[in-house]
Write a structure and sequence with these properties.
The complex is a heterotrimer.
Chain A lengths: L29 H4 L15 E4 L2 E3 L2 H10 L3 E3 L5 H10 L11 E3 L7 E5 L4 H13 L5 E5 H6 L21 E3 L6 H23 L1
Parallel strand pairs in A: 3-4, 3-5, 5-6, 6-7
Antiparallel strand pairs in A: 1-2
Chain B lengths: L11 E5 L11 E7 L2 E8 L7 H5 L4 H9 L6 H16 L5 H29 L4 H21 L8 E2 L2 E2 L7 H24 L2 H7 L7 H7 L4 H4 L7 H4 L20 H25 L18 E9 L2 E9 L5 E7 L1 H7 L1 H5 L7 H8 L3 H5 L1
Antiparallel strand pairs in B: 1-2, 2-3, 4-5, 6-7, 7-8
Helix pairs in contact in B: 2-3, 3-4, 4-5, 4-11, 4-14, 5-6, 6-11, 11-14
Chain C lengths: L33 H14 L5 E5 L2 E6 L4 H10 L6 E9 L4 E8 L6 E8 L5 E3 L8 H12 L2 E3 L31
Parallel strand pairs in C: 2-5, 6-7
Antiparallel strand pairs in C: 1-2, 3-4, 4-5
The chains are: A alpha/beta, B alpha+beta, C alpha/beta.
């Protein structure tokens, strides 16, 4: 779906925690989120339009992005301390399943790799191998400061300064370790990114 | 193939890890299999070697506590306690009694939290999906108490050389006793669910047997050793903090199989609950920090202190050159030593039991590799 | 690699090196408690004439022996009255002019703790292996070999345990620098 040229936003890579929208959040349509993402008094065009009752009109990209973002299979990839908080998030109290996030032990089925913990040089090759085994489209979340930048171990002789030196990262979650709420926020941000990427690809 | 013809059979090499859901981290082992039987096992570690011991040499004594937090990331307070005690012994500091009681309460609660993680993940390794939900429900409760006390769910950085960071919240006693009631019920629930379950018994009874003397020579400690019938517990044999004032039993297994190791941990949860209750009764108001300089600068010398971690006997060998940074810190990691026994336990077992045996050791890779 | 300034007095031995700031450096008192004295007696018995020096604080006495007598002393600690069923820890300390390897022994039943110190030269660090006496020695020795380069003769497998094949240097040594930020 083409955007109104007046509201066209520049494409290209943006840091994930930064939002171009003034409201800070990106909602699909005024009906859905209640906040307009357009400028001034002009509401942004709806991505999914109800044409007649029972019929909606949308693009295929939009549809697949919505399907993908609401059924993320994460690779169980606990490296270190953050893995414990990741397990906590998956369990009853925080219940990750309600976002459609399911943990999966095989990289061949996984959409998202949550790198939860310190990446050391000995682990670098296995991580690349696992990433290559994942089917496209795939996303990576760097959970915690260790996976983001080396964290408390940045001066160590054996620690990689962030997993982004090995594989591309989509979402960075700060914290040592991040709370389960932070991980959930990271997943929500990833869902927004998946939808936004589909739109930008479409123009 | 015709009979009588000379045939060679080769062992099948099976690689497990470093990314494998049953290894609880980045542990890798190569199994040599003759049919279903494990002939040899070659463990590979170091996939989480972060060089903590070297980094300790570049941090001041107060900062080292944070690195110890992250070493065994399931029992953080116990690890902090190990380092803090080493520094205190070197500096000859007496810790106020209240601080000591709070330390023991938190350490024992952390032991329960750690054992709950074991009970849940071990059950999931063996195919029981439910207990982890109950275990983590109780873990969340313990973590909520930790958060109220120390400000963090996992990496507390709460102990200081000479005492504590700050006193406990006003309603600490009430919250802890409420928590203890919940934990008692929670541990009983897991016990009922799992311990005498027929499938669970079939997968753990008589599997991965190691005899007491062999376990000692391998350096096993903690519940992994006590499952083999050796009643060695640092809290009893080398008492520290306020453990001499507490009445508790040391659960000991008889055969040294996976079930014994599992049940020792479950019984230890109950002992820890009773210890915390005793601490609450005995604890009185008072100072929480010994007088002295805020920046620790121990005298030149060396000290070796060991204490009981949920995984076993954690030791800290600390060398000071008189500056504000340690000259050398060496940790005796209990999981690392427990892994030495893996080979002996697995030889002759079936490949299906490999996960059961590995899980029963309850390793934490952050401490194995440091 | 690091381009940090070398620490002041890095060329001096630790004994000569002054404290960077603060009060003058005190020596930790070496006083054994009752339990330590009992252990010290048994440790001295096991070391016999091989003991070069001895001392200790709290419950851990130590004795220094030459590397050729290490296996003898360890064997006597295990089989004698000390009853060291556990080799508790092998901790190497790099004092620059020498590498001191500390063996900590523990008797689980009798409650004795004892420490045996052995000095090796950093140029050709070699020690006999204790794998024949305690299975636990194997991994401790491999780790010490990784981080300090000490060669344990008789250890059947000294391949890298914590580090990986092709890692250069021995990061446990004091001379090994901390990292600055680097792309990897």
């Amino acid at each position: 779906m083409a955007l109104d040229p007046q509201h066209q936003v520049p494409t290209g890579a943006v840091p994930m925690t930064w939002h171009r929208e003034k409201g800070g959040r990106f909602f699909d349509s005024p009906e859905e989120g209640g906040i307009s993402t357009g400028k001034g008094n002009h509401p942004a065009p709806a991505r999914v339009r109800a044409v007649v009752p029972g019929v909606v009109l949308t693009t295929l990209d939009e549809l697949s992005a919505r399907a993908r973002s609401n059924s993320l299979f994460t690779l169980t990839f606990g490296l270190a301390c953050c893995a414990i908080e990741m397990i906590s998030t998956h369990n009853a109290h925080h219940d990750f399943d309600r976002f459609g996030v399911v943990t999966w032990p095989s990289p061949r089925h996984a959409d998202v790799m949550i790198v939860a913990g310190t990446v050391v040089k000995k682990m670098a090759e296995p991580i690349k191998l696992l990433y290559e085994q994942m089917p496209d489209p795939k996303w990576v979340i760097a959970m915690g400061t260790c996976a983001t930048s080396g964290g408390p171990y940045y001066r160590s002789y054996s620690v990689v300064m962030g997993v982004d030196q090995l594989i591309p990262v989509d979402i960075y979650i700060p914290g040592c370790p991040p709370r389960p709420e932070a991980l959930m926020d990271g997943i929500l941000k990833l869902q927004e990114k998946i939808k936004r990427d589909a739109r930008e690809k479409n123009g | 193939m015709t009979t009588g013809q000379h045939t060679d059979t080769l062992d099948m090499m099976l690689n497990m890890g470093p990314q494998h859901p049953a290894t609880h981290g980045v542990f890798r082992m190569v199994l040599a299999l003759d049919g279903e039987e494990v002939v040899d096992v070659i463990p590979h570690i170091g996939y989480l070697h972060r060089g903590s011991e070297k980094l300790c040499e570049g941090e001041s004594y107060g900062q080292v506590i944070t690195l110890f937090d992250r070493m065994d990331y399931v029992s953080n307070i116990n690890n902090e306690l190990a380092f803090v005690r080493a520094a205190e012994r070197l500096m000859d500091i007496e810790v106020p009694e209240r601080a000591s009681y709070v330390r023991v309460i938190l350490a024992e609660l952390n032991r329960i939290a750690s054992h709950l993680l074991f009970l849940g993940t071990y059950a999931i390794d063996l195919g029981a999906i439910t207990p982890i939900m109950y275990a983590f429900r109780d873990r969340e409760r313990i973590q909520a108490l930790f958060e109220a006390t120390t400000g963090a769910r996992m990496m507390h950085n709460y102990l200081r050389i000479g005492g504590l960071k700050e006193d406990t919240p006003a309603d600490f006693d009430v919250r802890v006793s409420e928590l203890l009631d919940q934990l008692r019920a929670g541990v009983d629930e897991i016990d009922r669910l799992l311990s005498l379950n027929e499938v669970f018994l079939a997968r753990t009874k008589g599997v991965g047997i190691i005899a007491g003397p062999t376990a000692l020579a391998c350096g096993l400690s903690g519940p992994s050793l006590r499952g083999s019938g050796v009643a060695y517990d640092v809290r009893k044999d080398h008492p520290y903090e306020v453990y001499p004032y507490l009445a508790f039993n040391v659960p000991v297994g008889s055969t040294g199989d996976c079930w014994d190791r599992y049940y020792c941990r479950l019984l230890e949860c109950r002992e820890s609950i009773s210890m915390v209750a005793q601490c609450l009764e005995q604890m009185e108001a008072g100072p929480i920090r010994a007088a002295g300089r805020r920046i620790a600068r121990p005298p030149r010398g060396e000290v070796y202190v060991h204490s009981e971690n949920p995984r076993g006997d954690i030791g800290v060998f600390l060398v000071s050159d008189g500056t504000d940074k340690p000259y050398r810190v060496k940790v005796r990691p209990p999981s690392f030593c427990n892994l030495v026994g893996l080979k002996l336990m697995m030889e002759g077992a079936y490949v299906g039991d490999a996960v059961s045996i590995l899980g029963s050791l309850d390793i934490v890779l952050g401490e194995v590799d440091r | 690699m690091s381009e940090q300034e070398p620490q002041a007095g890095a060329d001096k031995t630790p004994a000569e090196r002054p404290a960077r700031h603060g009060p003058p450096v005190a020596e930790a008192p070496q006083v054994l408690d009752a339990r330590g004295q009992a252990s010290a007696k048994l440790l001295a018995q096991a070391a016999g004439a091989h003991a070069l020096a001895s001392g200790g604080g709290h419950d851990t006495p130590w004795v220094r022996v030459a590397s050729e007598h290490l296996v003898d002393v360890a064997k006597r600690l295990r089989d004698g009255a000390f009853g060291a069923q556990m080799l508790h820890l092998i901790a190497a300390v790099d004092y620059e002019e020498r590498i001191e390897v500390n063996y900590l022994f523990l008797s689980a039943t009798k409650g004795h703790t004892g420490q045996v110190k052995v000095d090796v030269s950093p140029d050709a660090p070699e020690l006999p292996s204790l794998t024949g006496l305690w299975t636990a020695a194997g991994w401790f020795e491999r780790e010490t070999h990784d981080l300090f380069g000490v060669v344990f003769e008789g250890n059947p497998d000294l391949s890298p345990l914590l580090l990986y094949e092709g890692f250069e240097g021995h990061p446990g040594l004091r001379s090994y620098p901390f990292n600055d930020y680097q792309e990897w």
